[in-house]
Each structure stands twice: as structure tokens, then as C-alpha cells.
Design a protein that fits this description.
Layout: H1 9-37, H2 42-54, E1 57-62, H3 68-82, E2 87-92, E3 120-124, H4 134-138, H5 140-145, E4 148-152, E5 163-166, H6 173-183, H7 190-203, H8 214-225, H9 230-239, H10 243-253, E6 257-259, E7 264-269, H11 271-277, H12 287-292, E8 299-305, E9 311-317, H13 323-328, E10 333-334, E11 338-343, H14 347-364
Helix pairs in contact: 1-6, 1-8, 3-6, 3-7, 6-7, 7-8, 7-9, 10-11
Bound molecules: manganese (II) ion.
């Protein structure tokens, strides 16, 4: 951009950083929108959008045990559809977790349907109706006969709709929704953007997981341009803790030990730790991963004393180690990086047993 030659030197600088910067911003946003809009096939986007535009009352459902991607996708899409004069109800079998303070509209999520008078259902972040839990179980006949649009990003999804938009290349359902809305030229309000960004940020743990692509970040950039605020999501989601949780973590971290030159790290959580910290049992949430953040640690284990005399082990791994195989030894399972099992022994008996087994795996490579 060239400045106005009639302006003095100082004025010219003001002109350049003002008007042309605003023009650049608009064209930059248009370019981002075009890139994102091209990330979804037009036919599929059109088929889904037509069903939404033809509907009057729309039910948007998030899977049970909801995460911010499921709820943020449902709320974010509801905000966008309401701008097109659609009546939207957002439902989930379980209530919105208390720390999801960053989701605009969370107070409107219902755990039970007011009625079954919907002409479209949009199922978000899971490809099987059974994953919608009690909501599906209580209204099975309605859901089995309903017209459903299914939007999800899990590779294992079978699709439960007449139109299924399932894209495992998307790091989050919310990323896929951003593509859909931009493909259809739909406006994304600040509230909608905040919900969608929450889905993207939490499914990638702040753009850390390897599911994060250039497109994921582009979608994030676009949503920030719509007014979404990353800090409002990241701090309550990952860092803010109630004081009793801080106290509990302090007690548990004081018990930390290592074996196999620090490659195995573990800590114990006893019933009295919970009681004396004034904590609740769910406040160990995040602790096993936190242990794995120790330099040199490859396998992290949190051993928790149950109130039934048994011991619960939560295992997190990095490198070549398969947490699900380690836990299978005790009849448990899960994922490669995160698994759990219950050891039928008191914590004092279980601790040396489990550590001896894991130490043997690390030194021999045999599970
Ligand atoms: Mn998801």
C-alpha cells in the first residue's frame, strides 16, 4: 500500500498503520475463511445444511460424559442456527461439568428432553446413538425414527444419521463445524466462536497433541478473529484448582518415588489424604499425567487406595510403553498412553507388586 504523498512523514505513518492495516485484516480473514471452507466437500456440507435450514425445531445432542468438544460443538452450532431463526434445544445425558465456565450458553443445556417435537436431531462428537447414554435410552423410539445429522471426527465412528459428516483428519468436531459453517457462508458470532474454540483447544490440549494440523491452527486463528479468547478456556480447564485439590496434590506429590533410573515414577493417594486435604475423590484428576511430566519418566503410576480395600492404578506412558498392556496384567485396560486397572490388594501390598512388575517390563521389554 502506498501512502498519500500529500501527507507529512508522521501523518503518513498513521495512515499506513490505520486504514491499510484494517483492509489487510479483512482480506486476511477472507483468505482464512476460504481455506477453511475448502476443507469440507461442498455436497456433504450442502446436504447437512439443507436439512438444518428446512427444519424448524432442532435438537442438538452431545455424547454422555461430555467433554468441551461435544458441548462446545452443540452450543456453537445452536448459536449459529439461531441466527437463522431456528429453535434449538441443546441436550446431554449428563450435566455440564462445573469447570466448563468458558462455554457461553452452558446454563441452557438440558439433561432431559422437554418433549419429542423436533424435526431434526444433530448428534455431535460421537457416531453411535448408544454413546448419547441415558438420553438415547429414555427416548430410543424417538431417536430411532428421527432424522439425524451426525457430525464427528472419530475414525471408528459408524455414523448414525441420514447425513454423516465424519472426518478423522479434524482434530475436533468443533474444527469440522468451523469448516461447515464457513463452507455455507454462515456467520460465526463471538459466543459461537468461543464454544468452537473450546472444543478445538481441549481436544488438542492447547494445540499440543499430534492431531493438531495447520488447518486446526487456521480454524483456531479464524475463531480468535471472531472474538474467541483462548485464555478464558485454557486457565479454568488446565490450571485453576480449588484449594483442597492443591493440598491433595501436595500430599500425593510428597509420596513420589522412582525406579529404573527414573524411568518409572509413582505416587500414592490414600483415603486419609483426601480427608485431611478436605478434598473429594475426583480431585486426583490430572495427577497421573502430571507425574509423567517429570524429566526422564517413561511410565507414571498413581496408586489410589479405594474405599473397598482394593487399589486403583492409573498408568500414563510415553515412548515405546503400552499402558493398556501394563494394565491388562491386572485385568484392566484402556489406551496406549492412558490406562487403568484395579489390583485386588491393599495399597501397602499392591504398591511393591505393581512396581516390581513394571520395573521388570522396563528392564526386559516383556509384558
Ligand atoms: Mn472430539
Amino acid at each position: 500500500m502506498t501512502g498519500d504523498s500529500r501527507l507529512g512523514e508522521g501523518e503518513k505513518r498513521v495512515a499506513v498503520s490505520g486504514d491499510s492495516a484494517a483492509t489487510d485484516k479483512t482480506s486476511e480473514r477472507k483468505a482464512l475463511a476460504a481455506i477453511l471452507a475448502a476443507g469440507i466437500t461442498n455436497e456433504l456440507a450442502e446436504a447437512a445444511w439443507r436439512l438444518m435450514m428446512d427444519a424448524r425445531r432442532i435438537l442438538l445432542i452431545a455424547h454422555h460424559n461430555p467433554d468441551p468438544d461435544a458441548l462446545g460443538s452443540a452450543l456453537g452450532l445452536a448459536f449459529a442456527l439461531e441466527a437463522h431463526d431456528k429453535q434449538c434445544v441443546v441436550a446431554c445425558a449428563d450435566p455440564v461439568p462445573a469447570n466448563f465456565t468458558f462455554l457461553p450458553g452452558r446454563e441452557r443445556v438440558v439433561t432431559e428432553l422437554p418433549a419429542e417435537d423436533f424435526d431434526l436431531v444433530i448428534a455431535l462428537d460421537a457416531g453411535e446413538l448408544s454413546r448419547y447414554g441415558a438420553l438415547y435410552e429414555r427416548h430410543q423410539a424417538f431417536f430411532d425414527g428421527a432424522r439425524i445429522v451426525n457430525i464427528d471426527h472419530h475414525a471408528t465412528s459408524t455414523g448414525c444419521g441420514v447425513v454423516n459428516i465424519i472426518d478423522p483428519a479434524s482434530a475436533a468436531t468443533a474444527e469440522l463445524l468451523t469448516l461447515l459453517l464457513l463452507n455455507r457462508g454462515a456467520a460465526i458470532s463471538q459466543d459461537s466462536a468461543q464454544c468452537l474454540l473450546a472444543g478445538i483447544i481441549t481436544d488438542t490440549r492447547s494445540f499440543e497433541f499430534d492431531a493438531t494440523t495447520e488447518r486446526t491452527l487456521t480454524a483456531g486463528a479464524y475463531l480468535v478473529g471472531c472474538g474467541a479468547v483462548p485464555e478464558a478456556i485454557i486457565k479454568p480447564m488446565y490450571r485453576l484448582k480449588p484449594y483442597p485439590k492443591m493440598k491433595l496434590w501436595g500430599r500425593v506429590l510428597a509420596s513420589v518415588q522412582t525406579a529404573a533410573d527414573g524411568r518409572v515414577i509413582w505416587a500414592t493417594l490414600r483415603q486419609r489424604d483426601i480427608a485431611e486435604a478436605g478434598a473429594t475423590p475426583d480431585m486426583d484428576d490430572g495427577l497421573p499425567s502430571y507425574l509423567l511430566d517429570t524429566d526422564g519418566a517413561e511410565i507414571a503410576i498413581l496408586l489410589r487406595e479405594g474405599d473397598d480395600g482394593k487399589t486403583r492404578a492409573s498408568v500414563r506412558t510415553t515412548g515405546p510403553w503400552d499402558a493398556s498392556k501394563l494394565c491388562a496384567h491386572y485385568g484392566g485396560g484402556g489406551h496406549i498412553r492412558a490406562s487403568g486397572c484395579t489390583v485386588d490388594a491393599s495399597i501397602d501390598e499392591a504398591e511393591p507388586q505393581v512396581i516390581a512388575y513394571v520395573r521388570q517390563v522396563v528392564t526386559t521389554g516383556e509384558y
